[in-house]
Amino acid sequence: MKDKGLHLKNKFNKGYNFDELIQKNPEIEQFVTKNKHGNFSIDFSNPKAVKELNKALLFSYDEIFVWDFPDENLCPPIPGRLDYIHHISDLLSTEDQVKILDIGTGATCIYPLLGVAEYKWNFVATDIDLDSLDTAQDIIDYNNLDGFIKLRQQFDEQHILKGIIEENDSFSATMCNPPFYKSAEEARGANRRKTRNLGNNAVRNFSGNNNELWYIGGEKAFLHNYLYESSLYPKISKWFTSLVSKKENVESLRDSSKKLGVSQFRVIHMNQGNKVTRIVCWQF
User: For 74-283, which CATH class?
Assistant: First the structure.
């Protein structure tokens, strides 16, 4: 299967070699079948198949050989997450020693894992959920990556950077995949629509617990809070960045950034299959 529009440096931009993926993660073999076009694929409405596929993709890196997390946690699509890493690399092309702040790393710790595997970057990764941080720490320990990735807990759900930033912190960039929805009910409604479209009304193929999926006020409120708090710590990072799913939120952020003294504001477009998303980047 070939993904459309992935970054040129993305190792999955030519599609998947299922023979190689089965070698990396034998658990996926039971889910691989030929589709109606005669190509090998999996049933993307099956959450177990999706999880094992993404494990296989991640295990294609020699640095990572354990990636276990509860089924209720969001299972990130590796090619798309990897694209964000490559675009950050382009943004930091002149940097030698890269250190990234990953906001809301989740139980999977996916951006730090990919950033270390691809570029040997250093990370500070944050989350508000202690269980997610415990799982992420286990993944870090099992893969012997403690020298590259450090975790911090955010104790106040009203803040994003405040309470996380320490006195001597200095980052090349921050990155974030914000919650999309305004409430748990909105997230459940979106899941019902998604599973109907996939032809499977019984399960959610992407999972995700509350703090991963929704935030009071939704994506817009989260992004504006993030933008405002970045203005309180303008020198701690060369670039502040975030994924933005809704186009209208980009212009809203751009308008607010002018009032907060942002000196550069960039939008990087990412196209993955039929999905279009953006990385918004700003600096002071």
Answer: alpha beta
Mean pLDDT of 228-238: 97
- The reported pTM is 0.85
Q: Which amino acid, one-letter code, is at 283?
A: Q
* Alpha carbons 203 and 206: distance in angstroms, whole number: 9
Strand bridging mode 237-244 / 171-176: parallel
Cα 67 to Cα 51, 53, 95, distances in angstroms:
10, 12, 29
Exposure string of 88-117, with b = 16+ CB inside 10 Å and e = fewer, is bbebbeeeeebbbbbbbbbbbbbbbbbbbb
Q: What are phi and psi of 268, to 5 degrees?
A: -110, 125
CB 152 within 8 A of CB 164: yes
Relative to beta strand 33-34, strand 149-153 is unpaired
Q: Which helix (H) or strand (E) holds 219?
A: helix 218-232
State the average pLDDT for the chain. Answer: 87
DSSP 129-187: -HHHHHHHHHHHHHTT-TTTEEEEE---TT-SSTTT--TT--EEEEEE----BSSHHHH
CB 261 within 8 A of CB 231: yes
Predicted local distance difference test score (pLDDT) of residue 271: 78
Report whether 280 contacts 250 (CB < 8 A): yes
- The Cα-based distances of 237 to 10, 51, 88, 91 in angstroms read 25, 33, 13, 13
Report the alpha-carbon angle 245-50-122, nearest 5. 65
**Tens digit of pLDDT for each residue in 136-157?**
999 999 999 999 999 999 999 8
- Best CA proximity match to 179, nearest among 220, 140, 150: 220
CA nearest to 125, candidates 102, 108, 109, 154: 102
